[in-house]
Amino acid sequence: MTGPTTSRGRLVLALALTVAVALFLAFVPLHRHWFDLNVYYDAVGHWLRDGRIYDFTIPGADGADYGFTYPPFAALCMLPMALFTWPAAITLSMVLNVAASAILLTWLIGPIVRRHGWNKWFAFVVAACLFVLLEPVRDTFSFGQVNLLLLVLVFFDAWLLSTGHGRFAGCGIGLAAAIKLTPAIFIGYLLITRRWRAAATATGTAAAATLLALAVAPGASRVYWTEALWDTDRIGVLSYVSNQSWEGVLARLFDPVPPSGVVWALGVLAVLAVWAHRVRCAVAVGDERAGFALTGVTACLISPITWVHHLVWLIPALAVLVDSGLRPDAPPARRRLLLQVGAVVYVLLCSSVVWLWRFDSTGVDGFLGSNTYVWICLGLLIALPLRGARSATMLGQEPYPARIP
């Protein structure tokens, strides 16, 4: 990392960068006014008062009504919010997301910083400033979303697997899958990589959490698994530009006609086939950090709804891309290309570019521009570089074994 060589120079630059980012966050992006947190908070209160949670809705900016869409176990986890005032709930959400961000940055950039001998605190400040400028991160904070917390749960298991403590892995993925169904794809990753014990632990943890919710809240569990889960209208408008999934592409392409379920399913199968192949390639060279990153990218593509704030699942892949461009043993031309691609992806993920087509996504420019983040996902899925067994890892200092036992 090039930059100031003196402590004073690093301090001045860190302060200037922090102030500039703070001013940008305060005045430039649209704030979401903790809309999702408000849904959680009011839905839990409605549940306690009336005994029902999945019939509660509030209107959104796109004209749709939004309600509590997570499984009952998530509602149990959020139940303590009822003890807080609304300002205290906002504070709690911010504190948890800040803590999750700090943990993720430590896991993602810590080994890179050590490998290159950079100044730790300065590198962390720069990385943190770059991190919060990402639109998915900004939206996660201002919506009061939970995806950064789920990302920590999932990558805790990745950290366990990468540091030789795999016998304890699986609980994080299982809890994340019980809170929100999308992370269940990481159980598929464990199966593909033949982490049978971790896969069983994850499945058992998810099942135990779901059964706990069933025992505590049988009515809510019955409504969710028999009605709410299958009611896609309660999730949101599929064609809304914030939906950056394969389903969102089809919905905008054929709007106002509902997208074909067969075409969507074929696309999902194709994405899963590419994902399985790339994950096996990652396992073959011992690059588990890329395998987890590819799984996060795939989750964004195959989910029927992938709002922009869900794209925090791309952050590990972005870290892999940049880290690969910093490899000293790679040809200089390849390093430059990877860093340039990483910079372009980063800028696009900060730009909020898809919102330019919020009201009209027709035409070639609309098709390409309104789905920008989907194209980024596809590019990362197909071309994310893999590192060999001799390379240092993203989540630990020791190299991965050539084969996963």
Series of secondary-structure elements, N-terminal to C-terminal: HHEEHHHHHHHHHHHHHHHH
First-residue to last-residue Cα separation: 36 Å
If you average the pLDDT, what whole number results?
88
Tell me the structural class: mainly alpha
Largest sheet report:
2 strands, antiparallel
Shape: globular
Task: Estimate what percentage of residues fall within beta strands.
Answer: under 5%
Radius of gyration using CA atoms only: 21 Å
Secondary structure tally: strands: 2
Total number of helices? 18
Give the spatial strand order of the biggest sheet: 1-2
- pLDDT < 50 stretches: 389-405
* Share of helical residues: 55-70%
InterPro entries: GT87 (IPR018584)
Family: Belongs to the glycosyltransferase 87 family.
Main location: membrane
Pfam families: GT87 (PF09594)
